[in-house]
Design brief:
There is one protein chain. The protein is mainly alpha-helical. It has helices at about 1-10, 15-30, 50-70, 80-100, 100-120, 130-150, 155-165, 165-185, 200-205, 210-235, 235-260; strands spanning about 265-270, 275, 310-315. β1 and β2 form a beta hairpin.
Length: about 325
């Protein structure tokens, strides 16, 4: 059912609400066949009927949410497939440590193995593209397998682990919904694509597409390791690990900014002249070693005489 809707979307592009309808219908089929999140039942619900209805809505919401999370993060070559394989491996380790049902271990292993074989062809520059059909399939599969993996578990902390293992795409999706609601001020705005996803923001900070994908792989792996450490060693050791990662990322970003600045070049759109601020240019009146992130307003191209506005960062 997911594939039918998404194949049409890949070929002719259907409206987001139509694709969402297909995802909801697929979630209803899953519930009808007995796959449910029934460990979380609020005590304030007075009857078993209400508790069952809550379980059905929660399950469909989880299926639709994770399916869209993987679909929305599919913005760069190899990103959704790589995030999915990292999440799948994390869930596999969690299921093995937790004594989850064998069916969930077999399915998550098969999914991870298939993705490991596919990823080399999908990583930038991609030879094979996953499309909406592929990304929706991955999200749908991960959502169902994660439910099966905790189907016989009644510990609240363990139920949260799949949420952590899929933390990156889920966070990106939640932030996208909030961002679009604030900007568009209507429910319809949620369905309008924008350039505010994490991968867009990372590329906008000066990283290449490959670097952005690898950074997000690292963040996804951090979420997965956090979940595994929390399962094995408790929340405090997991938080200590997370703190070390945050410090390492901060230092790494600082070094990247310094290295990026040292190698920054500017290219004249008119004559393709490339200028390096570190080398300087006497004709332009700038001494070697002058440090600035943007060309000064008085800058002119020493070759064709074009002004600052005709220069762009050379990548």
């Amino acid at each position: 059912m997911i594939s039918i809707f998404c194949v049409f979307d890949d070929i002719v592009t259907i409206k987001p609400i139509v694709k969402l309808t297909g995802q909801v219908l697929a979630g209803i089929v899953v519930v009808a066949f007995g796959v449910r999140i029934d460990e979380i039942t609020p005590d304030f619900l007075p009857t078993e009927e209400l508790k069952e209805m809550f379980s059905i809505i929660l399950t469909i919401g989880w299926v639709v949410g994770v399916t869209n999370a993987i679909n929305l993060i599919d913005g760069l070559d190899g990103l959704s497939a790589g995030i999915s394989v990292i999440s799948a491996v994390s869930l596999l380790i969690i299921f093995v440590l937790n004594g989850s049902p064998l069916i969930s271990i077999l399915l998550i292993t098969a999914l991870a193995g298939a993705l490991v074989g596919f990823l080399p062809f999908n990583f930038a520059p991609a030879k094979t593209f996953i499309g909406d059909t592929g990304s929706n399939f991955l999200g749908f599969s991960l959502s169902i397998i994660s439910i099966l993996g905790v189907a016989k578990t009644y510990t609240a902390a363990v139920i949260v682990l799949p949420l952590l293992a899929l933390g990156l795409p889920i966070f990106d999706t939640i932030w996208a919904i909030i961002r679009r609601l604030i900007k568009g001020k209507s429910i319809k705005a949620i369905f309008k694509a924008d350039k505010g996803h994490l991968h867009h923001l990372i590329v906008a900070r000066g990283f290449s597409q490959k670097q952005a994908v690898l950074i997000l792989y690292g963040i996804a792996a951090t979420f997965g390791l956090f979940a595994i450490i929390m399962l094995e060693s408790g929340i405090w050791k997991a938080l200590s690990f997370l703190l070390m990662v945050i410090v390492a990322l901060g230092l790494g970003y600082k070094n990247f900014q310094s290295e990026k600045f040292d190698s920054q070049r500017y290219e004249c759109v008119g004559c393709k002249y490339i200028y390096n601020p570190k080398s300087g240019n006497e004709k332009a009146g700038i001494n070697p070693g002058t440090e600035f992130e943007e060309l000064p307003d008085t800058w002119v191209c020493p070759v064709c005489g074009e002004g600052k506005d005709m220069f762009q960062i050379h990548r």
